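Workshop exercise sheet. Pairs work together: one partner reads the sequence aloud, the other fills in the structure field after running the prediction. Swap roles for the next sheet.
Pair: D.N. / O.F.
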Amino acid sequence: MAEPGSEHGERIAARLDALRKGLPAGVTLVAVSKTRPIDDLRAAYAAGQRDFGENRVQELLDKAPQLPEDVRLHHIGHLQTNKVKALLPWAHLIHGVDTEKVLAEVNRRALERGTPTSVLLQVHIAQEAEKFGWEPDALRRFWGDGAAERYPGVHVRGLMGMATFTDDRTQIRREFRLLRTLFTDLQPHAGWDTLSMGMSGDWELAVEEGSTLIRVGSAIFGDRG
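Structure field:
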C-alpha cells in the first residue's frame, strides 16, 4: 500500500517529481490510476498530483467519493453509452468520445443535467484495428458539417489518440504528427485547447509533437504486480 510517507509512497512522489521536471509549461500530466489501490492515488495527491485517469466507469465511481474534492477525474477508456449518465457528475474530462453515437448520448445527458460536459474526440491513428476512434478523414467531414452547433450540451475541447504499440519511434512520431495536424486544422473556437497524446512509453515524443496532455501510469505508480 502506498500511503503518504511510506516507502512506496515516496517512490511515487519521486517519479512524479522527475516527470514534472521533464514537462514543458502548459502540458498537463494525468496520472493513470486504473486498477491502482486508493492509497496509491492518495500518495500521488500528497505529492501534488490532482489529475487522475480511469479506464472503467465503475472504478472511477468507486474511487471518486474517497478522494478530495479538488481532484480532477478523467475518463480515458472506451465509453459505452449506457454508462454515460452515471459518469457525467464525476468526470472532469471524457477523453474517449469515439463515435457520433457516444457524442450524442453525452450531449443528451448533459442537457438533462443542465451542465455542459467537456470531452475530447478520440481519433484512430494507430495501425491496430482493436483501438477505437474516428478515422481522420471521417472526422474532418463530420466536424466540417457543423457538428459543434448540433451538440450544445458538449464542450469539445480537442482530440485524443493512441499511437501504435511498437518500438519504431519514427512510426510513433508520424502518428502523433498526424493527430497534431488534424487538431490544428479542425480548431473551431477558443476553447479548443487540449491535445491528449502520449503515455508512459512515448510521452516525450508526444510532447515534442505538440501534446498538451499526457497520460502516464506505470512511470508514476510502477509496474503492476
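Discussion prompt: The mean pLDDT is 93. What would you look at next?
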